[in-house]
Amino acid sequence: MKKLKKILAKVLEVKESSITDKTSSENVLSWDSFNTLMIISEIETVFNTKLTIQEAVNVKSVKDIKDILKNHGVVL
Amino acid sequence: MPDRDTIKNVISEAEPKTIGDYFLLDKKIEEIKKNQEIESESLFKIAILFSFTAKGIKEAINVECCKLGVIPEFFAGDYKQYAQDILNKNSELYRFKPNVVFFFIDIKSLFGENFFSPYQISNEERKRFVEEKIEEVKKLLQTLSKRTSAKIVFHNFEVPCHSPLGILESKEKFGFIESIEYLNSELRKFIKLNSPIFLFDYNSFSSRIGKDKILDHKMYYLADMKIGMEYLATLAKEYLSYIKPLLSLSKKCLVLDLDNTLWGGIIGEDGIEGIKLGPTSEGMPFWEFQKYILELFNRGVILAINSSNNPDDVLKALREHPYMILKENHFASMQINWNDKVSNIKKIAEEIGIDVSSMVFIDDSQVNRQIIKEALPEVTVVDMPEDSSLYLKTIMEIDDFNTFSLTVEDTKRGQMYSAQRERKKFQETSGNIDEYLKNLNTVVTFEKVNNFTIPRIAQLTQKTNQFNMTTKRYLDTEIKNFSENENYFVFSVKVEDKFGDNGITGTSIIEKQGKEWRIDIFLLSCRVIGRAIEKVMLARIIEQAKKEGVKTLIGEFIPTAKNSPAKDFYKDNGFKLAEKKEEFQKWNFELSVSNFNYPDFIKIKNEKA
């Protein structure tokens, strides 16, 4: 979770401590569509995996990301 | 003024790896810029015209530039608007007055439907279509180069790896793949003839990364990004090759270690027979490395040696080793001794007459590299790999020696500096300076400005800092204007002596104002300073002025941080101070009162003068 929080904090410019599963594009102003792509790109680099386009369009919240990574066999 | 150091400090500690890191640093830079109310005038202006989403590329260029100490300002056109930006002469692009334009149309945007369904049209139709596209691109490039003074960096097109025809592709009369190769080749021809336009070989760049990897299909469908985010920084770094020469950040001199750098092993221990160099598995990496360095020498890079060794061992190897590519005469300075490497670099700088900031240092020892990095941070230190088989790759990737043009003087530079070394030896053995100058057998050739000398004259005004009375910088086009204006007298001098030809190393531009002539430019390249060439040039001007009935010759001096060698020239040669306004000095030479003769030990030749 630490690595993921780090990515989110960097891209969204929020404090790591403020990030929870519920953090999403709904409640964080800086989480726009471009930042979603950045988050995906960072995740792919850091966790060495590739998201499918279906997964990518469904990324809206931290929980979504965690579910996807879990499906990819990434242990957070 | 921008506080370049603040920005540089923020950036130099950071080692951005992912595009997210670049975005973060970019934000920091923009904040500092904003807080310090930086004047837009002092910034380097970069325009980005891309046919697809270029988000990220600006951020990456910004960070890479700031690392170099260059603070840029950007114009990033809306990505489908590049044609309008170029064709509308009142567009924001032109108001921005860019110094450099990175212009990138990708093949999918250019070809549209014909990219995805290439065989819906016949070969003949395709040929017509491609010709049209070539004209379209040429027109954009022509318009752009006419309306700005910027250097334009145009990307060629990625040649696809796949065709719907598969193996039959190669049998088509004018196939899809061939049509894109043809497009690239026609545009290359066009760019050769248009000096402000440079080619960025994107096809080769994408091959290097891997055409299968460079496009992130998902990001392309999600956001029309045609380059994967992870490669944007790689691309931005490549762009520095075009930015460095624009800002005179290019390097001039390659300083080389010897043992385990130019050959394998240690000459002092292994001896000339023992070192690894030549056509063996272990010798080849060094052999090919030397061959590449020789190519750099041939394009005008100055070479120097900085080595801890006994000079005799090294000289024997340079002279006698059958596979030694680099010989004594390729090196402008050879510091082979047991002094520390820092003093040696300083000595090289002094001997050649260049600043250490124009040097690139190559040494296999990490310790030595660290010492130089700490003592002389202006020197570019190449991180050489442990494995010598990667030496060639490493040196090929150095992008610090780029220039926008090569003059004859550039290509001969290496030889000239090596002659300079001989000259210096000769000076040391001569009894006194007069005897030395006399025995040099100098020949100075005057040439009135003409189309062949214009590029070199412009280059001299742009690069000469030391013996330069006014340090005015002129472009080729401005020199051409002077040459066509009969109120100007412009000439260059070529200097030869018993050690070789220095090429065109001095120039003067004189404005004729009736009975008064004003010397606008009077300069000498540093490699011929101290050889009375300036006196010959002045004598030539005075001779011509007398011929044309001139009363007063006016010399101007504008001091800079670097031109103190020229400071007393007018004073010491019969000029009287006529005016002094702050830094600006005006010196008069009355032709009816004073006289000035050619130094008798220099032979004068006039060509088309």
Quickly give the structural class of chain A: mainly alpha
State the end-to-end CA separation of chain B. Answer: 46 Å
Number of domains of chain A: 1
At the fold tier of CATH, the topology name of chain A is Non-ribosomal Peptide Synthetase Peptidyl Carrier Protein, Chain A
Biggest chain pair contact, residues each?
A: A-B, 18 and 18 residues
- Strand proportion of chain B, as a percent range, falls in 15-25%
SSE arrangement of chain A, N to C: HHHH
Number of strands of chain A: 0
CATH architecture identity of the largest domain in chain B: 3-Layer(aba) Sandwich
Verbal overview:
The complex is a heterodimer of chains A (76) and B (609). With 76 residues, chain A is an all-alpha fold. Chain A has one domain (2-71): ACP-like (Non-ribosomal Peptide Synthetase Peptidyl Carrier Protein, Chain A, Orthogonal Bundle). Chain A is 53% helix and 0% strand. Chain A has helices spanning 2-12, 33-46, 53-57, 62-71. In chain A, helix 1 runs antiparallel to helix 2. Chain A is globular. The N and C termini of chain A lie close together (5 Å). Chain B has 609 residues and is of the alpha/beta class. Chain B folds into 3 domains: 4-246, 3-Layer(aba) Sandwich (Rossmann fold), CATH 3.40.50; 258-396, Rossmann fold (3-Layer(aba) Sandwich); 419-607, Aminopeptidase (3-Layer(aba) Sandwich). Chain B has 25 helices and 19 strands. In chain B, strands 11, 12, 13, 14, 15, 16, 17, 18 and 19 form a 9-stranded mixed β-sheet that branches. Chain B has a 5-stranded parallel β-sheet with strand order 2-1-3-4-5, sandwiched between helices. A 5-stranded parallel β-sheet of chain B has the order 8-7-6-9-10. In chain B, helix 24 (533-547) links the parallel strand 15 (516-524) and strand 16. In chain B, helix 2 packs across helix 3 (57-67). The model of chain B has no long low-confidence stretch (mean pLDDT 92). The chains are: A mainly alpha (76), B alpha/beta (609). At the A-B interface, helix 1, helix 2 and helix 3 of A face helix 2 and helix 12 of B.
